[in-house]
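In the previous chapter we treated chains in isolation. Here, by contrast, the input contains three separate entities that must be folded as one system, with a combined length of 521 residues.
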Amino acid sequence: MKRILTLGALCLGVLSLPAWSQKTASQGIDEYRAMLQDGNPADLFEAKGEDLWKQRRGPKNATLEQCDLGKGPGVVKGVFVELPRYFADTRRVQDLESRLLTCMVTLQGFNGEEIAKTPFGRGEQNTLTALATWIAAESKNMRFNLPQGHQEERTFYELGKRMFFMRGGTHDFSCASCHGEEGKRIRLQDLPILTKNPGDGVGFAAWPAYRVSNGQMWGMQQRLNDCYRQQRFPYPGFGSDATVALSVYLGVNAKGAASVAPAIKR
Amino acid sequence: MADPMRIRAQASGDKATVRVLMSHEMESGQRRDANGKLVPAWHIAEVTAEHNGKVVMTAEWGPAVAKNPYLQFSVKGAKAGDKIAISWKDNRGDTRRDEATVS
Amino acid sequence: MQNRRETLRQSAVVAGLLASTGLFPQWAHAAFNKAAFETKTVLDAVKAYGPGSITESKDVTITGPDIAENGAVVPIGASTTLPGVKQLLLLVEKNPSTLVAMFNVTDSIDATIATRAKMGQSSDVFAVAIMADGRALFAKKEIKVTLGGCGG
């Protein structure tokens, strides 16, 4: 109750002054966000990710330096803006995090199923998040250019599109409920439209991100799974076809947008 | 041993701006866990900054400093090549020290 | 007979004064001034470091956003152009304990520091400069803390 009153008081406070004498709440929030840009705690995860890439780990006591993220073994620069994509060795379209897991399994000998079932923020999921943060940083400011040359990649785009508009769950929500139109907002949170390119550093181009509200680093997998939780759906699951397909849809739509990952968010 | 800090020190004119990101939970002591029990305060309590081995700033922090704290200050007379060292000690006695070179 | 609180405060004041003479090495300069971090008002927090009163001053600056999207991380800074400042304090009036951080200012650094604080609710935020002559000068600004949405 108290929280609603506080918000109500804030709204009244902002509305009761003449427009020209008070910056809008939206401008105020933009300023707040700008203040946080320098000194993003995501840097700490980035540093950890780089270490984990080069560290000998797992039953095979190997590094991840031979991991192929789409541009050849060991290439990390530029891979983030071309994922998800089709991989011939697994015969799957994979996103960054599921591909990192593949490498942890094949190169280092980790148990993939166990890690996929591990909740976000625990155990080796933290390893994946840190790695994803670093690899995203290696493509910072580069423009998204997901490949659609392989049939599977095109199929996954269509699958992702259907998933985006699929309504269900207790509230009959779909991704489109929040992200299907211009100018939507939840309280003071702007919701980008994701059926087309929403612009540089927005939507798909803004994850992985450090969320200040809970001090956690979130990769795209956690962001998508949590969207489903917010829609009152069960988690589709880490690295599932559903989440990869959605990523393809979002990533292809964002073609040309510059990535700002790792970003900082509320 | 705590995770490393990220220290950036950039010279400009006759001083260097130092920006530090520290990795620490900074538990406020106000939060309750899933069982309703208060999670005890756990935070960086003392911070020291050195320039070429000389202490130039010390600080005391309470639990209200944000998680994964950020700190910015300027050292007079620091130039490219100089060494900046930051160390902290938390209320459990854990410590961390990292160095950076002014660029 | 003075009570424990007064004793703590006095010893903190003495320790603080001694520390500012530069005679004490790094960690031994003073026990962490726990009393200061348990105070509930700006004035009490400042008193824990010596001065008996606070005066608003145009020469002290408090920086921070007008609105914080989330109270968990609010960038705030304190600075002053005045010479002879010994300490800079950052305080959030309505926090369970008012004092966020205290910085000992030496001649080797600018009297400007910035960090990020947790704010429990919308509140006035204070920057206090404690001068060598014992004056405590402050500037304040209101920072509104909003509830964010569900995303982002």
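The interface with chain C takes residues 15, 26, 28, 30, 45-46, 48-49, 51, 54-67, 69-77, 89, 91 of chain B (CB under 8 Å). The mean pLDDT of chain B is 95. Compare these points with the single-chain example from earlier in the chapter.
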